[in-house]
Amino acid sequence: MKSTFILKDYFSYEDKESILAQMQAHSKEWGAIPFLLSLLKDGSFHQKLGKGSLYLLLDEEKLTDGKPSLASFLTFCDRDEIESNLKPWIGFVFTAPAYRGHHLAGQIIEHCMNNAAALYPESEYVYVSSDEKGLYEKYGFEFVGKMKSIWGEDSGIFRRKIEKETSEINYKTLTPADYDELWSLWNQVEQTKRALNPVDDTREGITRYMKRNPTTCFAATSGGKIVGAILTGHDGRRAIIHHLCVHPDFQRMGIARTLVAKAEEALKKEGITKIFGLVFKDNDKANSFWGKMGYSLRTNLNYRNKSLNADVPTGE
Ligand SMILES: CC(C)(COP(=O)(O)OP(=O)(O)OC[C@H]1O[C@@H](n2cnc3c(N)ncnc32)[C@H](O)[C@@H]1OP(=O)(O)O)[C@@H](O)C(=O)NCCC(=O)NCCS
């Protein structure tokens, strides 16, 4: 699937008509869509669901009537269909059939979880009401029992803990929707800028990488902005590290150390036993850093590589 996804909130999205038309076209596929559409069309969305967003994941490569295609959406609001004072709730989770199996709903859920602490400082958990078995567990939710819905029916309730960091630096799993911020960070860090190449580091290249490695790329944020990042991925046997960097204003605070620890932990969960990274010989800071992180220097190997694309240099 050749796709480039952008995350938008319906309420600040400029082309609401296109979204409504695409939802309408999907309404045969899921019975809850007509109800959601009625809330959007008669303006009662916030009255029914309280404060919150309707997040959209749009495919910019595939156009529908000349507009980005609606691939996945969900609501992240004070309420859903359960009579309760708990909040917030993720609801109306839908991925278009052509996009299923690519972890798209998971990307939007991560976005909600990453913003939950700032939006709901009083809350301990994000909730979902669903009768699906095994789905929300995949996204880190736990089943906590059944509650009555506003329709008077029993519904399964799942919750996921909101991570509250004590320092002002927060950490999150990266998704393709973070590409613009990453690109800007990489270009502000000299040693990383030097390692970028015009094919693999495009939006398309990074999206492809993150789709193959959805759980092992991390960012550090301050005030909601990405200030450090690490990409790691594996081929089923070995893991490799790419583009670890921390914005110069945030270096020597232990951010890279934490990013590396998070990546290592995630890779271990995937059963990976060894990890490596390439470091320019003249990058003293990074060589000193990796030594401190316990990464030994192999001197009995030659690094051999071959480019399979004329635009990707092999280096000296
Ligand atoms: C290398 C880099 C990622 C380190 O990020 P950081 O967040 O500052 O690192 P941390 O604060 O987690 O450092 C952990 C430890 O590494 C060592 N270290 C980090 N930066 C160092 C430096 N400039 N000189 C010497 N040691 C350093 C220190 O021991 C440090 O702990 P300490 O300061 O408490 O003694 C950062 O300097 C960077 O972004 N450099 C440019 C991009 C780059 O070269 N990336 C690596 C590509 S392989």
TrEMBL record:
Any Pfam family hit: Acetyltransf_7
Cellular component per GO, a single term: ribosome
Keyword Transferase: yes
InterPro entries given in the database record: Acyl_CoA_acyltransferase, GNAT_dom, YpeA/RimI_acetyltransf
Signal peptide (UniProt feature, chain positions): none
GO function term, MF aspect, one: acyltransferase activity, transferring groups other than amino-acyl groups
Keywords for this protein: Acyltransferase, Ribonucleoprotein, Ribosomal protein, Transferase
Occurrences of domain N-acetyltransferase (ranges): 5-163, 169-316
Protein name according to UniProt: Ribosomal protein S18 acetylase RimI-like enzyme
